[in-house]
Write a structure and sequence with these properties.
With 194 residues, the protein is α+β, with helices and mostly antiparallel strands. The chain contains 9 helices and 4 strands; from the N terminus they run αββββαααααααα. A hairpin with a 2-residue loop joins strand 3 and strand 4. The C terminus is likely disordered.
Length: 194
């Protein structure tokens, strides 16, 4: 039988965790501390699994049902929602670990390993410092407009030649990111790579 919001609010903690079922695999777990957590129990490839949807009341009954329906749709499409969530978290960590600044620093280290002149590598480091607003952003998420905004900031200060050199350096970093599999196709950054 489907839960009602009034019933959920009235649920009191007990000495042990207990569950109150909604429908089609959705239930709320009530902890001794008083917290109420949404869960979705399902089977995939013969194994019982459960997926957490968040804490009540931050996640309302309607939102929990919507998340359940989305998970059920994925199951119908042959996708394990728990495995997909784990994959999304891994991708988020991967993107966060591959910021523009990290890739640029690796590119500069590659220049040093190749025996490029100290002045060239020092200049690359200085150019990276000029592009500081981009450094903390995942390289795969950057769009040409993001780079353009950083370059326009330099141009506004009258540093036209610095902006031109930064554009060239950013293009090399993006090409290196593509070559190492951490950025998308170079066409999306063509305004940067000129």
């Amino acid at each position: 039988m489907a839960l009602k919001d009034l019933e959920i609010r009235a649920l009191q903690p007990k000495e042990r965790i207990y569950k109150k079922a909604d429908e089609r695999g959705l239930y709320i777990e009530v902890h001794p501390s008083g917290s109420k957590l949404w869960r979705f129990k399902y089977g995939y490839l013969g194994k019982d699994k459960r997926l957490a949807f968040g804490r009540y009341p931050e996640v309302t009954l309607a939102e929990a049902r919507q998340k359940r329906d989305e998970a059920r749709q994925k199951l119908r499409d042959g996708i394990d929602p728990l495995a997909e969530r784990k994959r999304e978290k891994l991708m988020a960590h991967y993107k966060a670990a591959n910021t523009f600044g990290d890739v640029a620093q690796e590119y500069i280290e590659k220049m040093i390993a190749e025996g490029r002149a100290d002045t060239a590598t020092a200049k690359a480091g200085w150019l990276l410092e000029q592009l500081r607003p981009l450094c903390s952003q995942p390289i795969a998420d950057l769009k040409p407009i993001d780079v353009l905004a950083a370059l326009k900031r330099l141009e506004a200060k009258g540093k036209l030649e610095t902006a031109r050199r930064c554009r060239s350096f950013a293009g090399r970093v993006f090409r290196y990111g593509v070559a190492t599999g951490r950025a998308e196709a170079i066409q999306s950054h063509s305004c940067v790579a000129r």
